[in-house]
Amino acid sequence: MRRRTDGDAYVPGHGDPSFAVDHYDLDLTVNLAANALSGVATLTCRALADLASFELDLYRLRVGKVVIDGRPPAKHAQRRHKVVLRPRATIPAGAAFTVKIPYSGSPRPMPGKDGEAGWEELEDGLIVASQPHGAPSWFPCNDRPDDKATYAFTVTAPQGYTVVANGRPGPTRRRGSTRVWTYAEDAPMASYLATLQIGRYVALPGESVGVALTTWCPPARKPAVAEAFADQPAMVESFSRLFGPYPFASYAAVVTDDELEIPLEAQSLSIFGSNLAYRAWSAQRLIAHELAHQWFGNSVTLRHWRDIWLHEGFACYAEWLWSEASGGPTADAHARQHHARLSGLPQDLLLADPGPDDMFDDRVYKRGALTLHALRLRVGDDAFFDLLRAWTSRFRHSTVTTDDFVELTGELTGLDGAELFSPWLDELPLPALP
């Protein structure tokens, strides 16, 4: 079942494999009224090959005077969504170097094969939802999911607004009519998972298994949000038992005053519209789904977008597991219901490589979850959950492929991983459930 490992056709033109970024330091100023962003991005990098030139991804924002290791480059140019940099001397493979890039402009969502993603204005604030290609809409980056880095954020925003970003919050300070917020994400993070949320929010604090939980929402929505998200601590406890320890220092949920078409996770936080602030299963399953992505997608991250089922199938199955744990229908009941539904749909989606047009098709989510349920039925609960905990432990904060999961399954169960998975991953017809 060894799969190809060439360039990523799902997000063509993104990323430069000749170097890696170890750390991003983003110092940003946001003018909400004008939808204007100015910033300085300082990237600590490593050359993976001899670099006579290299590229960063940045969409619609103007670059100022770039410096590489404190000196202007021999040349820099902006072409479409690329910043092309040529240092004064070739940077040898293995060498560390720093790039400092001032930039500014009016950010817009970035288009891609699957639609637009990234920076988005709200009625009163903004969100950033970058999966899979939207990170260049707000900062210069090496936009590849396999190039994880740590991050520091310093964000200046108007007084009266709350800024939420990835990781651990630091000190805030007033500066005239603005406030400066700081965050640090010390765990390696893919660029598409970096986020910025700004709104008129208040905090609902919580805690579960030693993890600090914060739910941010508009003041008027606090009672509804508190009720809707009341089970989040129990979800964290349940998933920590089933999947292994929660992989980050904290977890936050941001609930916007606007309604959003879909929720979305970022590393160490998730974003929901006010239309999901209710107790019914249709909302609770999505709260569980986005939380599960902290294990499956954010800590353990796909290396190539064709393996999206490793994120969405696992998070969908976590919904069914939460239903089972919270006294609702069992995972088996959910599996058989969705198997019957998928059986009546076109059998033209290849789970191992659905294509950019179908990477977020609901069949990827449900067939991925069914693949895991079929595995659970085959190996039994003890072996199945031992496998999930080994998956999140062995590949914690790293990147993976489908073959990694297939091989780990074979290693830990003694069964033929290819035989177990091939009908679900590599064939079009939907297999029968055991």
Q: Would you write up a description of this structure?
A:
The chain is an alpha+beta fold. It folds into three domains: 19-116 and 130-192, Immunoglobulin-like (Sandwich); 202-294, Neutral Protease, domain 2 (Orthogonal Bundle); 301-425, Neutral Protease, domain 2 (Orthogonal Bundle). The chain is 26% helix and 32% strand. The protein is built from nine helices and 24 strands. Strands 1, 2, 4, 5, 8, 12, 14, 15 and 16 form a nine-stranded mixed sheet that branches. A five-stranded mixed sheet has the order 18-19-20-22-21, covered by helices on one side. A hairpin with a 2-residue loop joins β21 and β22 (269-272). The chain is globular and about 65 Å long.
Q: Would you tell me the overall average pLDDT?
A: 96
The number of domains: 3
Quaternary structure type: single chain
Radius of gyration: 22 Å
Range of helix content: 25-40%
Q: Give the low-confidence spans.
A: 1-6
Per CATH, the superfamily of the largest domain is: tricorn interacting facor f3 domain
Task: Label the overall shape.
Answer: globular
- Strand percent estimate: 25-35%
CATH class wording of the largest domain = Mainly Beta
- First-residue to last-residue Cα separation: 22 Å
CATH architecture annotation of the largest domain: Sandwich
